Amino acid sequence: MNCLCNLGPELGRLGRRLKETANLMIGIQDYETYVAHQGRVHPERPVLSKTEFFRLMQSRRYADGSGRGLRCC
Amino acid sequence: MATLTKHSPASGGWTYVIWAAIAILGAFALGIVALHRGETINAVWLVTAAVCVYLLAYRFYSVFIADRVLQLDPRRVTPAVRYNDGLDFVPTNKNVVFGHHFAAIAGAGPLVGPVLAAQMGYLPGTLWILVGVVFAGAVQDFLILFISTRRDGRSLGEIIRSEMGNVPGIVALFGVLMIMIILLAVLALVVVKALTGSPWGTFTVFATIPIAVLMGIYSRVRPGRILEMSLIGFVLLMASIVFGRTVAETPSLAPLFTYSGPTLALILIGYGFIASILPVWLVLAPRDYLSTFLKIGTITALALGILVVQPQMQMPAVSRFVDGTGPVFSGGLFPFLFITIACGSVSGFHALIASGTTPKLIENEVQTRLIGYGAMLMESFVAIMALIAACVLEPGAYFAMNAPAALIGTTVDQAAQTVSNWGFVITPDMLTQLASDVGESSILSRAGGAPTLAVGMAHILSGAVGGKTMMAFWYHFAILFEALFILTTVDAGTRVTRFMIQDLLGTAIPAFKRTQALLPNLMATALAVAAWGYFLYQGVVDPLGGINSLWPLFGISNQMLAAIALTLATVVLFRMKHERYAWVAILPTAWLAICTLTAGWQKLFDSSPAIGFLAHGAKYRAALANGQMLAPAKNALEMSRIVTNDYVNAGLTLIFMAVVVIMLVYGVTVSRQALRSHRVSTREASYELPVQSRA
User: Fold this and answer.
1) Is B314 an interface residue toward A (CB < 8 Å)?
2) What per-residue confidence (pLDDT) applies to A66?
3) For residues B381, B383, B389 and B393, what is the CA-based torsion angle, rounded to 10 degrees?
4) Distance from CA of A6 to the nearest CA of B (A)
5) Mean pLDDT calculated for residue range B273-290
6) Interface residue A67 vs chain B (CB under 8 A)
7) Which of B261, B369, B456, B537 is a Cys-bridge partner for B389, taking CB atoms 3.0 to 4.6 Å apart?
8) How far apart, in whole angstroms, are the C-alpha atoms of residue B4 and residue A55?
């Protein structure tokens, strides 16, 4: 029964991981990780909004010479 | 030594029993695949053999490389930790990085090469995919990922420059530019071959552009809602497949989407130019999202389909075409099998990915084993599935689909007769029936992998869901799925190529370096598109189908890049003073060098016009001198254009060979220097965090 009680949070974690994986596959870093990082390391700097963060990630993936959007054959 | 104990088998006897059982099962399955003759075998045996080989290789060989060869150190700080900025460098869960890395390395390559190689039967391809991935492909990905992770996630070109010198660095970059151009041309050719004369396919592929634009606009209205926009896109895509049938069956609509090969090539070239100068959020990004998710979904569906349907392999284990007379591509088993199947066995292109974003995400360097070696095993499995999809077809149908019209004619009667004479019995009715099953007017001479794979997938998936009535849907789904991510590659690849050209020309004409300025941008884009467009167009009009000349060029260039990457890995092992284990990298380097140089030599100097570019050129030049016209040329101008193409291809082959030789010479020289020296000379980043950032 013990494992059943833990199923909820476990599934939640799995779902979060899957979402994170899907986002990273298309070059979008985890927003929460970014916010946590900014808060921890650069608390004095402004934090990008979710929209700004998404746009930044999108433009960086295909930015000139970044090779981030590079696909194998 | 901590890592040694970490990976050693648990002392419990059960683990030994389980691994012994996997070894026995794998050997048994391989035995069935390799030795069974006469009756057909079930595809599940191939899957079993492959999975057992992967498990054993991952459990033993990759651990050997991790512990002995590289001596991975879990205490060492990775670039993600050192430079953590929440944007580029982010320590990320290893499974998440695995997914990211797999999505970046798995493209159209592992789906095309094995389908072409199926002309020699399923056994040669299977063996090369398995042996190649274990000892070459996965090793390369693992080593390069490790090397880049220890060097702040720097790129392949930069690492070659710092470990081997400036000249090899520039030579390697030049090689990368060449491979990009050939890659884009050959992938675009796959799309052209699939869509020629197919209004259904053409309509659905064209429909992806407005769908992507719609998604792009949606992403501006509701930014970041990727799931929402992808679902909308997916539903619209499926609707376009369904509606495509109506288009194909409506006499007033069908001609609007029916094009010849050359016209499609010109459309693609124009598209490539326009798409790569549009803002990324409008077309490129949304379609990239769609193609990425669709790719993962389709690969999963195909794996499930094979397990559920358990199809029989119809192709013989070894066909008569191992002698080099095959209609799909010319040339003997050695070296051309090893050139034809690059992705899935060993793909040099992965070295660019493994020294790109992935090393900047790794939490701990021991995870490079899972991500580098493991993800490549998975890609290899995709190649095995593609091979299965091609081999579950009736061999006669396979050859009718993949042989050029110059060999089998343009009607089902001629095709059925020629293919039956080769020993693969098929009737005209069967070919007509198959075409109508998948909703096409003809399936003859559609070399390039995509249509064959699509028929194979339709065969498997319709066996799982929908039966025969769904076959046409599944066929066009498979075509769309391949075209979708090929177009994404064409778009993104043109941007990358443009940047490389600007970088290269910029050293001579500084104005070209201004990548934000419109004019240099447009000019470099035009140059990039013209370069791959040239090869695409010559491939489309080639009487032998284009794949025959372009795919070997692509294979040679991809294996050339792998040889470069593995040469670097060898050099690094010597400079680490781990020379005792350098054979791990030397072995695949030597094999790839032998294959690329032999194949290059034959493509240049073989006396058969089907293989040698120079012989082909000479044949057309002699005919031209005698006033004769050889198909497909209809006049002297076209004849001389073919001769020019042959010399261009020959020149390119020569360049690829020269790149390999130069890199090898530098590799040997630098390795010998390292061998003589008594100290470690690698240029790795420091071991620990800088003092001030340690909290």
Assistant:
1) no
2) 64
3) -130
4) 21
5) 91
6) yes
7) B456
8) 44
Of B518 and B665, more confident: B665
pLDDT at A2 over 70: no
With beta carbons less than 8 A apart as the criterion, state whether B146 and B157 touch: no
Average pLDDT, chain B: 92
Contact A50/B at CB under 8 A: yes
> Residue A49 carries which DSSP code?
P
Instruction: Give B503→chain A minimum CA distance, Å.
Output: 9
The answer to whether position B681 is within a domain reads no
CB contact under 8 A, A17 and B105: no
Print burial letters for B423-433: b (CB count within 10 Å at least 16), e (below 16).
ebebebebbbe
Contact B281 A50 (CB under 8 A): no
Closest partner residue to A70 (CB to CB) among B187, B356, B485 is B356
| B108 belongs to a structural domain | yes
Q: How far apart are CA B385 and CA B54, in angstroms?
A: 14
Distance CA A1, CA B81 (A): 38
Percent of chain B's residues with pLDDT above 90: 79
Query: In chain B, which among 236-255 make CB contacts under 8 A with chain A?
Result: none
3-class secondary structure, B403: coil
Domain around B347: 2-197+259-676
Distance of CA B132 to the CA centre of its chain: 14
Interface residue B292 vs chain A (CB under 8 A): yes
**Residue range B54-82: mean pLDDT, rounded:** 96
Would you say the C-alpha torsion B435, B438, B441, B446 has a positive or negative sign? negative
A55 to chain B: closest CA residue: B223
For the stretch B422-460, pLDDT in tens is 999 999 999 999 999 999 999 999 888 889 999 999 999
Domain count across chain B: 1
Residues on chain A touching B191 (C-beta within 8 angstroms): none
CB contact under 8 A, B85 and A37: yes
The beta-strand segments (E) located in B603-652 are none
A47 touches chain B (CB under 8 A): no
State whether B224 and A54 contact (CB < 8 Å): yes
**Average pLDDT over every residue of B387-392:** 96
Contact residues, chain A, for B219 at CB < 8 Å: 58
The CATH code of the domain that includes B478 is 1.20.1740.10
Q: What six digits make up the tokens of B129?
A: 């995919």
B394 φ/ψ sector (left φ>0, alpha ψ -120 to 50, else beta): beta
3-state secondary structure of B362: strand
Asked if residue B398 belongs to a domain, the reply is: yes
Contact status of B278 with chain A (Cβ, < 8 Å):
no
**B249 in a structural domain:** no
A26 touches B at CB < 8 Å: yes
B503 and chain A in contact, CB less than 8 A: yes
Angle, vertex CA B553, rays to CA B551 and CA B559, nearest 5: 100
Q: How far is CA A14 from CA A28, B100, B358, B370, B622, in A?
A: 18, 16, 21, 19, 67
- Contact predicate B513/B493, CB 8 Å: no
Question: What's the pTM?
Answer: 0.95
Q: How far is B24 from chain A (nearest CA, A)?
A: 34
